[in-house]
Amino acid sequence: MDQRKPFIAGNWKMNLSLDESVSLVRAIADSIHDLEGVDVLVGPPFTSLHPVKQAIADAGIYLAAQNMHWESSGAYTGEISPSMLIETGCTHVILGHSERRHIFGETDEWVDRKAKSAAKVGLTPIVCVGETIEEREKERTEEVIESQLRGSLKNFREKGALPSSFLLAYEPVWAIGTGQTATPEQAQEVHHFIRQWLTQGFGTKTAEVVRILYGGSVKPDNIKDLMSMADVDGVLVGGASLKADSFIPIIRFGF
Ligand code: PGA
């Protein structure tokens, strides 16, 4: 059974100038024009979203913001609303990334509000969850993931429905930017757990189509092994998505 198309996403974080962003997305667009079996997404900083969208033109690359506020407008200095992201050409938004959670104090409750508001305007959320090394060592991984999922998808759980385009990303905090990737087996174990949780909350049909991405030190030399796992449907790439030389081989891992 493989109805889940591989999804390769690049999270550029707070990196790349306007020129660098546009050159990179052009290089990606050139490299995928003959490629059909994979979905590709880039997540530039807010200031590059519009020029990157223009450079994408009709190349079929999805565009994500890395965060947003849940309100549609108002006195929220420094924040960006879901409809502003739509206006800029975004198709997706990354929510609850571990850097937002750990550096900026983002809570499950915020992620839940944001995911609800994003879906309302037609933005697809990519909701991130992941345990710290201390939590893994204390064998609390599943408990932590379950609690993050329950809190971050509360609205959807209450309705018992999750859009089939929704994306989840399992990103163990200890693997992000450290060069220490989860083994394919470790990733599969948690992805399988997440899929079971989806089945319980939303039914088999939804659980079978919702894609679960792995993130944390994904590189050209580990992508194939990660993607060979039954429940790993794609990847969310940080460092290696900043250069065409490393991101393009990741996108083309199976082609
Ligand atoms: P990394 O980051 O690939 O640099 O580990 C992944 C992420 O934070 O999404």
Structure description:
The two termini are 19 Å apart. An 8-stranded parallel beta barrel has the order 1-2-3-4-5-6-7-8, surrounded by 5 helices. Helix 2 links the parallel strand 2 and strand 3. The model has no long low-confidence stretch (mean pLDDT 96). It contains 12 helices and 8 strands. Helix 1 runs parallel beside helix 2, helix 5 packs across helix 7 and helix 7 crosses helix 9. It has a single domain, classed as Aldolase class I (TIM Barrel, Alpha-Beta Barrel), CATH 3.20.20.70. It has 255 residues and is α/β, with parallel strands linked by helices. The structure holds 2-phosphoglycolic acid (PGA). The site of 2-phosphoglycolic acid has 13 residues, from strand 8.
Short description:
With 255 residues, the chain is an alpha/beta fold.
List the strand order in the largest sheet: 1-2-3-4-5-6-7-8
Mean pLDDT: 96
Tally of structural domains: 1
Roughly how many Å is the radius of gyration? 17 Å
How can the largest sheet be summarized?
8 strands, parallel, barrel
CATH topology: TIM Barrel
Ligands bound, unique: 2-phosphoglycolic acid
Give the number of DSSP strands: 8
Shape: globular
Strand and helix layout:
Layout: E1 7-11, H1 18-32, E2 39-43, H2 49-56, E3 61-65, H3 82-88, E4 92-95, H4 98-104, H5 108-121, E5 124-129, H6 133-137, H7 141-152, H8 154-159, E6 167-170, H9 184-202, H10 204-209, E7 211-215, H11 223-227, E8 234-237, H12 244-251
Parallel strand pairs: 1-2, 1-8, 2-3, 3-4, 4-5, 5-6, 6-7, 7-8
Helix pairs in contact: 1-2, 1-12, 5-7, 7-9
Bound molecules: 2-phosphoglycolic acid.
